[in-house]
Structures are given as C-alpha cells and as structure tokens.
Write a sequence for this structure.
C-alpha cells in the first residue's frame, strides 16, 4: 500500500474545475485524482479531502486550499503543473490488542424494508434516526442530536465485528454533510460523516483488509479511507 499527500496547483485548473475543487465535488475530485494513475482502467485508490491547515491564516481573507490523502496499491505519478504527491510505502505490522487512534470519513447507511418493494432500501443512518425520532414524537433538539450520534456510532461499532477492530470508547461524530451530484440524467445522493477516536485491533488480517479497501459505501466519492496512528 502507498499513502500519499496530494496538493493541487490550482493555476492548472480551468474555472469550472477550480470551483468544483473548492466546493468539494466528490465526483470531480475523484476524476482529478485518477490522473495520478493513468495506466489503470479501474479505480484502485481511496481518498479523503481536507483543508490544508498550514495555509489558514487569521483574518477574513483567509482560505485554505484542499489537500488530498490518497491510499493506493501502486505509487501515483505526479502530473506536472497540476498534482504533486508526497508518497510513502505502508506495510503495517499489526498485532491483536494494538491500540490505534483513527480518523474516518464514511457513508453510514441502514437497510429498511419498504411496502411494495421486494428489496430493502438504503437510508442515511443519521437521517433515519431523525425519522425514528419523529415517529416517536421526540422533538427535544438535544435528544434528537444524541440519538443521531448514537446511531452513527452504532453503525461503526457494528462494522468492527467483521472488520477486525473494536472501539475503545464512543467516537467523536462530526462533519455531517449531504452530497448531491448531477451527472447527465442521473443524480447521485449520499451523505458523509467524520469519525475520530481510538480502536483496538482484534483481528489483524481483517483490519488490514479494512485499511486497504476502505469501510462502508461511496468509497469512490471520498469515503471509506481510515487513517490510523499508534495511540
């Protein structure tokens, strides 16, 4: 595996591409980063977009430029004048019981049966929790917030059973965002939420698979990449 920190030379983008980058357009950013892997016909990387903190300065004019973390099974090739990657090879040596601090942006979903449909329909976990609150006539904002965060945490807790990890404590849940991407005659909708906390490795082989291939859905749109460090 290779983990890269990728910076974008914004002067190499046209106006529409620059606006998409600054708006966090997941589809456009995925297409942009794919240029680092020109010899691959299928997506072989995970990515996460953040704002480069060292570019933030005090004052109303301050604006950080996006930076991407990209995990791939081959090293990326820089695109001169556009994409610059700082890359390091990863070969984690993990053991059962290892404690790791983690950050994860994920698309947590839940399947619900709907009348008149044979297949279950997937829903955003946090929005589903709000709907359940409405049905239970729970209107207190603090209680609704607590229940939505609990639903998000439970989703991640359940992933650990097959992902080779368990949560050491309740993770921080933040950054909830709904994404709407219009492509030709198709609209793509998904939600993302940021998790941060500490986990314990229970099955190194399963957990390495999570690190390499991501967690949850919408992995082609900037979700699923788990960043870890020793706790």
């Amino acid at each position: 595996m290779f983990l890269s920190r990728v910076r974008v030379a914004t002067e190499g983008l046209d106006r529409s591409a620059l606006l998409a980058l600054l708006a966090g357009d997941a589809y456009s950013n995925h297409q942009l980063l794919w240029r680092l892997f020109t010899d691959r016909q299928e997506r072989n990387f995970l990515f996460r977009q953040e704002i480069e903190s060292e570019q933030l300065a005090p004052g109303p004019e301050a604006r950080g430029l996006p930076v991407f973390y990209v995990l791939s099974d081959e090293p990326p090739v820089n695109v001169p004048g556009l994409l610059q990657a700082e890359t390091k090879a990863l070969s984690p040596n993990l053991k059962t019981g290892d404690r790791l601090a983690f950050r994860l942006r994920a698309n947590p979903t839940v399947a619900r049966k709907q009348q008149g449909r044979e297949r279950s329909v997937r829903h955003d976990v946090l929005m589903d929790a709000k709907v359940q609150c409405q049905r239970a006539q729970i209107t207190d904002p603090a209680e609704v917030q607590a229940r939505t965060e609990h639903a998000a945490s439970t989703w991640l807790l359940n992933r650990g059973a097959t992902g080779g990890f368990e949560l050491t404590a309740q993770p921080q849940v933040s950054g909830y965002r709904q994404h709407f991407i219009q492509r030709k005659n198709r609209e793509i909708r998904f939600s993302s939420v940021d998790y941060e906390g500490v986990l314990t490795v229970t099955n190194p082989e399963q957990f390495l698979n999570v690190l390499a291939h991501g967690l949850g859905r919408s992995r082609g749109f900037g979700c699923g990449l788990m960043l870890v460090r020793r706790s």
